[in-house]
Design a protein that fits this description.
By secondary structure, the chain is an alpha/beta fold. It is built from 11 helices and 10 strands. The chain has an 8-stranded parallel beta sheet. A two-stranded antiparallel sheet has the order 5-6. The longest helix has 17 residues, at 126-142.
Length: 278
């Protein structure tokens, strides 16, 4: 099973954490994952604060400071950004990282953040917008010549899109969800290279995966973004990772929610040690 780590790109030690990513790569992690918010609100607290390093530009920075480790956003809130511009940013990062981008995708939930970003028109229809944006991205990334698209939110023709991502036919879609509601499971069935839920139990993972596979008529690999206590022992982390491996997960992105940079690095070392024994 692939074991990745969520790197905090928000909060008081965000810059230290991002600067430590070459060291995290040296610990043996398979991937690094960021979180996508742009601004803070009181309603986010205490889970998130107000200090955010923007996820796409931070991912581009990591493309230059790391060598082989996978680089992910879990999840990019697709309606926050124009689909063609996001496709260009992601293709650029994939090119500069030699094909290391993993794209978590989701619809978002914060009405206030949609309004702050001038994307209020997308909030009520964020599900359909996300689906169409994924179609737009695929069209841009796969076309060797002119790109054309006509939908409810996007309409263009005779667009030339270069460079295309190193990864073909597209950058992998890791379709996120915070539960097993029908809409995100249908999205995963249609688009996902991986189903990438947040915070589900092993039992929920197994049940949701079966629903997705039945809808898709194919086997969709299952992953997880999950929280592990910052002070968990190596043995506790082994048990935690093993429970998701046994539930069928091919990947886990461990989120420690550590209170300090030192606690984050200490937890990362124990997660790495536990992962090496699986």
């Amino acid at each position: 099973m692939r074991v990745d780590i969520v790197v905090p790109n928000e909060g008081p030690y965000a810059e230290q954490a991002i600067a430590s990513c070459p060291d995290l790569e040296g610990m043996g992690f398979d991937g690094l994952w960021l979180t996508d918010h742009v601004v803070g609100f009181e309603v986010f607290q205490p889970v998130y604060g107000d200090y955010w390093l923007e996820s796409l530009s931070t991912l581009a920075y990591l493309a230059g400071t790391t060598e082989k480790i996978r680089l992910g956003i879990g999840v990019l809130v697709i309606p926050y950004r124009d689909a063609v511009f996001a496709a260009k940013s992601l293709a650029t990062i994939d090119t500069l990282s030699n094909g290391r981008v993993d794209l978590g995708v989701g619809t978002g939930w914060s009405r206030a953040e949609f309004f702050a970003l001038g994307r209020q028109a997308q909030f009520e229809r964020r599900g359909p917008y996300t689906n169409e944006a994924l179609d737009v991205m695929q069209a841009c990334w796969s076309a060797e010549g002119d790109v054309a698209f006509s939908g409810d939110f996007h309409s263009f023709r005779k667009v030339r899109f270069q460079p295309r991502p190193v990864q073909q036919p597209r950058i992998p879609f890791w379709v996120g969800s915070r539960g097993t509601a029908s809409a995100p499971l249908r999205r995963a069935a249609k688009y996902a290279d991986y189903w990438h839920p947040t915070g589900l139990s092993p039992e929920e993972i197994s049940e949701g995966s079966q629903v997705i596979n039945d809808l898709a008529g194919r086997s969709v690999p299952t992953s997880l973004r999950g929280q592990i206590a910052s002070d968990a022992s190596v043995a506790e982390i082994q048990d935690w990772l093993g429970s998701y491996r046994d539930a069928g997960c091919v990947q886990v992105a461990a989120d420690t929610k550590s209170a300090s940079f030192d606690a984050f690095i200490s937890a990362a070392q124990r997660i790495s040690e536990a992962a090496a024994t699986l």
